[in-house]
Amino acid sequence: MIQLENVNHTYANGTQALRGISLEIGAEAFTVLIGPSGAGKSTLMRILNGLVRPTTGKVTIDKLEISRAKNVQVLAARRKIGMVFQQFNLVKRLTALENVLIGRLAFMPTWRSTIRMYTLEDRQLAFAALERVGMADYAWQRADTLSGGQQQRVGIARALAQQPKLILADEPISALDPKASEQVMGLLRQIQSEDGIAVIANLHHLDAVREYAERVVALQRGSVVFDGHPNALTEAVTRALYYDEQKATQPTPDLSTTPLLVNA
Amino acid sequence: MTKQLQAPPKVLMQRNYTRLIWLGMAALLFWATFGTELSIPKFIAGVGESYKLLFGTAERPDSGFFPPDFTRGLTFVDQMLLTVKMAIWGTVLAAIAALPISILAAANTAPNKVVYQIARRILDVLRGLNEFVLALIFVAAVGLGPFPGILALAVHTTGVLAKLYAEAIEVVDTGQIEAVQASGANPIQVFTHAIFPQIVPTVVSMSLYRFESNVRAASVLGLVGAGGIGLFVTETMRSFNFREASAVLIVILVAVFLVDFISAQIRAKLT
Ligand SMILES: Nc1ncnc2c1ncn2[C@@H]1O[C@H](COP(=O)(O)OP(=O)(O)OP(=O)(O)O)[C@@H](O)[C@H]1O
Ligand SMILES: [Mg+2]
């Protein structure tokens, strides 16, 4: 359902974030994106939901070419894509339930959302999403009074309220403790396997990758360098992914022994 | 070692710079004395005269501000209430008008730089025109009474509030905006559900704060015929009814204290 064909992205300041990415991702496997900092993982996610338009290449989601769609079409396409963030990004001064209702905004007329007159169906749907993530008891609590793990579950409920076909989770557990991380990853896996919603998560903990991923896509300096089952993700592969890159791109010459002219 | 001793000049230059500013300020103060007739003997004589004016003299038994004459007290209270009503409407109209303007006057929500600049300059003008001057204009335009007073307060306050709201919009958390955008919400919904909730504390506290100062401003607008208690300030002073004037001033002071107190309570509760 998601297709990327030779996608390149260069930011306005000249940073080449993605180079020649071609991928096909469906709902049948829990897909995890890995790669060192700056590899382009977040950029790829932003491109998938149209927050960023790729410089060149073709991105198709559910037959819509989002990389070239009109703004209105992009807004409509985003309804099918839920997003979960590292910092949760809940609207702090709204309640948990109101935050989940944000997932319904794109389905209601603007005047209705402006006066916050949500339909009963929307409210029921939002409440059911909170129940699904085990947060129904906190529906009327302000988001900024919840713990990190609770906020992230509300974030997942917000994505679920969109009744999406795809959930993008950009480092969903990087700000959480081990127990909350397990809950959040467990929920995402359950959503993928039971609801047939494709999930693409971007993770830094290799233990979590091995536990939850069914497919691993590794990015390095904007290119796909590994695509396969986590079992194939050997020590040698990860070492090359995270450490050899640093050696290759960021030489740190020892100034006390190196003659000054060498790097000039 | 010698290198470290050579380092300080930078610091010394900074001190010379601040000294220059102090010198400039002293020069400014000197310049400001010309034509303003500042005079210590006059001041001392004036204190004596003010004492006579305030507490009266033996030759004229009814002179002075004390005791205050409250025979028309009910009228004064009634006019003070009218003044508060003017401040309420002036502030509410401004708060409503300021919201959409603030979106255009915030760098992160303005559609483009041109709109942003135009909005900011308009706000500068609105803020630059004092309520009193605006009241004179509106009295000429719509006639005497409280209505031109309300308009004057509303226009000036719009300039003040829209700038404050815009500054609050400029520092909102972008993560919350991105999350609402990612759900497919349109720009208006992004404002109502990601930006507005974040600026509510500013909107509430600044609007109430401006209401307090509008009560004070409104109590002098009557001087130019724009309604309210101000009319009685001029009337009593011009006819040398100082004891009545002191009653009017007491009514104003009590009202201002009450409004400040109540408004501060609401602000503390709501934010
Ligand atoms: N808005 C932007 N403008 C310019 N450059 C950007 C922007 N966003 C990201 N970049 C650059 O693009 C490259 C890829 O960034 P991206 O955020 O996609 O990496 P990432 O793989 O998500 O890294 P991390 O693991 O640290 O989150 C980086 O070099 C980054 O500095
Ligand atoms: Mg990232």
Characterization of this structure:
- The complex is a heterodimer of chains A (264) and B (271).
- Chain A has helices at 41-48, 71-78, 96-101, 110-114, 120-132, 148-161, 178-195, 206-212, 235-249; strands spanning 2-10, 16-25, 31-34, 56-61, 64-65, 81-84, 166-170, 198-202, 215-220, 223-228.
- Chain A is of the alpha/beta class and 264 residues long.
- Chain A has a domain at 1-80 and 198-264: Rossmann fold (3-Layer(aba) Sandwich), CATH 3.40.50.300.
- Chain A has a 6-stranded mixed beta sheet with strand order 6-7-8-3-9-10, sandwiched between helices. A 4-stranded antiparallel beta sheet of chain A has the order 2-1-4-5, covered by helices on one side.
- In chain A, α5 packs across α6 (148-161) and α6 packs parallel to α7.
- Chain A is globular and about 50 Å long.
- Chain B is mainly alpha-helical.
- Chain B has one domain (73-270): Orthogonal Bundle (MetI-like fold), CATH 1.10.3720.
- Chain B has 11 helices and no strands.
- The interface between A and B is medium-sized, with 28 and 20 residues.
- The structure holds adenosine-5'-triphosphate and magnesium ion.
